[in-house]
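Why do we care about 3D structure at all? Because function follows from shape, and shape follows, mostly, from sequence. That is the central idea of this module. The next example makes it concrete: a single protein chain, its amino acid sequence, and then its structure expressed as tokens.
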Amino acid sequence: MVIDEIARWIAEGEQHYVCVTGVHGVMESQRDPDLLRIHNEAGLTVPDGMPMVWASHYAGAPHVKRVCGPDLMLEVLRRAEVEGWSSFFYGGKEGVPKLLCDRLRERFPALRVVGTYSPPFRALTSEEDEVVCRMISDARPDLVWVGLSTPKQEVWMAAHQHRISAHAVLGVGAAFDFHTGLTKRAPLWMQRSGLEWFYRLVTEPRRLWRRYLRNNPEFMARIVMNRPRLQAREGPR
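And the structure:
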């Protein structure tokens, strides 16, 4: 299980990042070799979205289940409350990380939060980035939650996993907005039937229409034309 692997990292003092990847992340990785490498070097890359699950089943992995960012976040934090793992929240608009902490503590009263940071929309200068790294490291979180967009959050995690003192860095994207109530999730039946992307497109058309128009048809065409195959992971776990 994902949570058991994260628990192992913490127990053994390892440092890794987790990519929660849907069709968008897969297709962007096909166009960007650096992003593909980042996904392949992650401690875990999990399937976010039913198309990813269906593609995995088609490739011969019927055991694969969906692991979406908002749900993964709640499950890991439920374990964190029991184990005493501490969290740092990085991402979201101004005020969102603090609001997220308040909402999560309503669910998990004993949750340990050691810091939050809402980065500016622009790229940080090297000096600003160094200050942020020191801030996170000084807080010594077990978990760093990154709420940025793909591929920005994956690039950030890969660049910072060994620059900050944390065992697991998890890119959960829109989970920050979902769990604060700023963005409403699709009904459960749409999530299970693979239509959550359509719900998000309808609710955020100006932001998402280019992504879905470009990526979804190409993803389906590639699956049909070239059946995906399972590959053994190279290197030590």
